[in-house]
Write a structure and sequence with these properties.
Mean pLDDT: 86
Radius of gyration: 27 Å
Number of strands: 2
Structural class: alpha+beta
Strand order of the largest sheet: 1-2
Number of helices: 2
C-alpha cells in the first residue's frame, strides 16, 4: 500500500446569489469523494498527488474542489426567476407588472423632443 484511500459522501450547504435577480440563495450539495493520500515517503508519478502530513489528512481541498465541480453554471433562486429590469434594475419577481411605458426608438428621440417643444 502506498497510502490511505479516502472514500465517502459529504453534504454541504452552499450560499451565493441568483444569476438573474441577484437575491441571496442557499442550497444543499451532496458530493461523493474518493482520493488516495500517499504516505510521506511514497513515490508517485504525479507531483500533485495528495499526501499525508504527519498523521493528518487534510480533506478541505478535496471537498472544496468537488463542491466547485458540482455547482450549477448559473444558480437560480427558482426556475422561473424573471431577473432584473434592463432599464432600471428593478427586481421583476417582486413587481411582475413593472413597465416603463412605450419607449421611443433612440434614433427618433431628438425629433420627438423637438415635436414636444413645438407643441408647448
Amino acid at each position: 500500500m502506498d497510502g490511505v484511500l479516502v472514500t465517502g459522501t459529504a453534504a454541504v450547504s452552499v450560499a451565493g446569489e441568483c444569476g438573474r435577480c441577484l437575491e441571496p440563495i442557499e442550497f444543499p450539495v451532496e458530493i461523493d469523494i474518493q482520493e488516495l493520500y500517499l504516505y510521506p515517503g511514497a513515490e508517485a508519478d504525479d507531483v500533485e498527488a495528495s499526501r499525508i502530513v504527519g498523521e493528518l489528512i487534510d480533506l478541505e481541498p478535496l471537498v472544496r474542489d468537488e463542491v466547485v465541480l458540482e455547482l450549477p453554471f448559473m444558480p437560480l433562486c427558482r426556475e422561473d426567476c424573471a431577473g432584473l429590469c434592463q432599464t432600471c434594475g428593478a427586481n421583476l419577481n417582486a413587481d411582475p407588472e413593472h413597465s416603463h411605458g412605450d419607449r421611443i426608438d433612440p434614433r427618433w428621440e431628438d425629433l420627438a423632443a423637438w415635436r414636444d417643444a413645438q407643441d408647448n
